[in-house]
Write a structure and sequence with these properties.
3-stranded antiparallel β-sheet, single chain, globular, 4 helices
Length: 93
């Protein structure tokens, strides 16, 4: 077996174990559309955290302390993060 094949096999095995572990822990990887294509005025906390490379809990702390890079809009007790603010911070048009 070639060295590259062994490395690839180990990498794939590790990724499979990680995926199974995440699923069993209740964590399912989410995929979001590119920020450039997002047309809604606001996004949920998980999606805002994804775009800003932060954990959702960090976003919630920003909301509660009003000391973060952006502030959410509260809609029926839920946080809605303005897409325009996210794009502005990241320099996306």
């Amino acid at each position: 077996m070639h060295r590259h094949s062994v490395v690839l096999e180990i990498t794939l095995h590790t990724a499979t174990i990680h995926s199974a572990t995440a699923k069993s822990a209740g964590h399912i990887a989410q995929s979001f559309p590119p920020l450039e294509t997002e047309t809604r005025p606001t996004v949920a906390t998980d999606q805002a955290a994804y775009y800003l490379n932060r954990k959702p809990q960090t976003m919630r702390v920003w909301a509660s302390t009003e000391a973060g890079a952006i502030r959410p809009i509260r809609v029926n007790g839920r946080l809605a993060w303005p897409v325009a603010d996210i794009k502005r911070i990241l320099g996306v048009k």
